[in-house]
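Session log. Operator J.P. requested a structure for one protein chain; no other inputs attached. Running the standard single-chain path with token output.
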Amino acid sequence: MHNRYTDQEMAAIWSEQEKYETWFDVEHKVCEIFADLGKIPYDTPKTMDSLREACFAGDFVAKIEEIERVTKHDIIAFLTHLSNVIGEPAKHIHYGMTSQDLIDTAQAILTKRSILLILNRLSDLKAAIKEKAVLYKQTICMGRSHGVHAEPMTFGLKLLTHYAGFDRCAKALWRDLPEMVRIKCSGAIGTYSMIDPQVETTLSSKLGIPAEDIATQVVPRDRLALLFSHLSITASCIERLAVEIRHLQRTEVGEVIESFTPGQKGSSAMPHKKNPILTENLTGLARAVRMSLTPAMENVALWHERDISHSSLERIALPDTFTHLSFALDRLTDVVNRMYVNTDRMRDNVWSQGGTFFSQRILLALIDKGMTREDAYKIVQEAAHNNTDNFRYAIMSKDLFSKEELNEYFGLTQYTKNVDYIFNKVLQE
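Structure written below.
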């Protein structure tokens, strides 16, 4: 994780300290279950509970890492550390379990916490976008296709489409949470050969996370591939809004500008510059998040019941992807809250092409008068291309419409008459 673009709250979830403490909690719960089943002494989970603080005293991470340098196995190093602190009762810890039972279950716990934090970040971002969308609900701006003026819309509608996109991201993450996050406690090959299925069922109930339907030595990695897909789509929605703001901040457009704080500098050489650096950062971060998707897909096809090729990637991709995405959502929320919206420039840009955006309305009016589409299109296109200073005058000079008709056709209300309908449709859903 790069500290410059790391959400510290998310980073804490994926810290080595948190990982080991989560491992301990999983092992403790499994011991409690075994004790209730009469498989191990009740003293084992009680001793673990009383010595938990001692297990994590001082620089315990360094102690575990020192053991791992000899064992070349992090789970065994962790269990050895527990044994050094807890003593003889530690022999019952990890009873009947395989390493991946612990790894996948703890990873599910951390992943669920991370998804819930992402959902909180999405909720904050949606609220910020919604507030601005409602504020600029009737503010006319130019809609563009291919980067070229198309027809007028409102800035509120422009923001509302981004709100709807992030709303879909949040709903998809919440809907698929039970599919993406599963625990496993079924033994070396997932057959419960050395562990009663009741242990996994009870553990699942204690953790509030469903158990894998049928595991091998691991939870199938298509579940994580689905997770990375959702995170990548969320990142793409971030980039979509970031790119929109960047384009609107271009000097030639000037409709939206990122906040520029006191003392901030835009360029080392050109003091006049106000660069959209925050949204440019977000564009790059979105690419960084999506980098994990293809390797996650490749992790699905492991050898037989399991190999270890997925492990190294997940140790990097899960913390990095979650922390960078959480940071990006938080930064974008701040951008939306603090951006300057130049409504005067929006109005000026709407009229900068002499009203040529009325072309479709005039085209349809001519068709309604009985003209063929081909003939009507030729007339309107010629008038629009040759009269970007005053399209209405060009149409008026052809004596095709009365003054009353022109007043009706060259009005902005037709482009905003359904704004309330769209807002109600999106926000009610």
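Operator note: The radius of gyration is 30 Å.
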